[in-house]
Amino acid sequence: MINHTDVSPMKTTPDGIAVYFLDRDPEFFPVVLHFLRDGPMNIQCHLPIDPVSLRKIHMEAIYYGLFKLSSIVAHRMCNFLMGSDTFSPLEE
């Protein structure tokens, strides 16, 4: 999922599980977590409506390699910029 070569495990647990430390903005991680748990089905209700926050979530989605989330957020940003006050989810 995270495909950055500069991200490596901080340590490994005794049973061999890698532990990572992600120094990212915690403000938008709940949206990422909701997406990871539930997928694209209910993500619209967790997305903000302001374009600055949407852009930051878009950047987080790209960082984590969540391209479906990135696409959903980009679609919502486009709707916002086009003046639509309703947002329809992307088709699967």
UniProtKB/TrEMBL annotation:
Ranges where the Potassium channel tetramerisation-type BTB domain occurs: 16-69
One Pfam family matching this protein: BTB_2
Tree of life domain: Eukaryota
Xref: InterPro entries: SKP1/BTB/POZ_sf, T1-type_BTB
GO terms classed as biological process: protein homooligomerization
Protein name (Swiss-Prot/TrEMBL): Potassium channel tetramerisation-type BTB domain-containing protein
